[in-house]
Amino acid sequence: MNAADIMTRDVIAVGPEATVAEIAGILLANRISGVPVLDGDRLVGIVSEGDLVRRVEAGTAPRYSGWLALFMSSSSVADEYVHTHGRHARDVMTPEVVSVHDDAPVAEIAELLEWRRIKRVPVLDAAGAVVGIITRANLLKALASRAVPASLPADDLRIRDALLAELR
After folding, report:
1. Could you tell me the residue range of the domain that residue 95 belongs to?
2. What are the strands, taking DSSP E only, across the chain?
3. pLDDT tens, 49-80?
4. Distance of CA 156 to the CA centre of its chain
5. What is the CATH number of the domain that holds 104?
């Protein structure tokens, strides 16, 4: 089983100029937790709920103690300010997007999501165009569709016999 077998094909995406309010509305209306940011057909970023939670207008922007602020580089302070005060997708998106190709094995995708601690991954075709998205829910659906029936034998001898029968 590969990415093309389990991905959601109707990808809901936004452009770099989409406002934070528009993105929040799209996430809520579609009951999703993130959207790819596309500039034409090119994947340029991804915006997740996490990118929108720490916002100045919600009073949830991070506050740094005076000591911590002294040790932060001026560029990281500037980046944080843009991220918490930005008004468009291009300001709040994560630009380094982890993606997979449509022929990637599902096992590798599951490992990637776990290893990178991400909840979704855009799926690209050979030309680099976004053709789908895989979330943890897609992986759970794939698992459920391949679940072993509960009626299989449970004792050792029956399990052995069932395995041998499958191998023949």
Report:
1. 3-143
2. 34-39, 42-48, 100-101, 120-124, 130-135
3. 888 887 545 554 555 555 455 555 555 545 55
4. 40
5. 3.10.580.10
Residues 86-143: pLDDT tens digits? 789 999 999 999 999 999 999 999 999 999 999 999 999 999 999 999 999 999 998 8
The total of structural domains in the chain comes to 1
φ, ψ of residue 101 to 5 degrees: the values are: -90, 160
Torsion sign over Cα 107, 111, 114, 117:
negative
User: Is residue 160 within a helix (H) or strand (E), and if so which, with residue range?
Assistant: helix 156-167
Provide the token pair at 68: 């911590």
For residues 168 and 160, what is the distance between their CA atoms, to the nearest angstrom?
13
- Tell whether 52 is covered by a domain: yes
> How many helices, marked H, and strands, marked E, lie in the chain?
9, 5
Are residues 123 and 3 in contact, defined by beta-carbon separation less than 8 angstroms? Answer: yes
Q: Are 88 and 16 in contact (CB under 8 A)?
A: yes
**Does residue 87 lie within any of the structural domains?**
yes
Q: What type of residue sits at position 165? A: A
Q: Is the dihedral of CA 78, 80, 84, 88 positive or negative?
A: positive
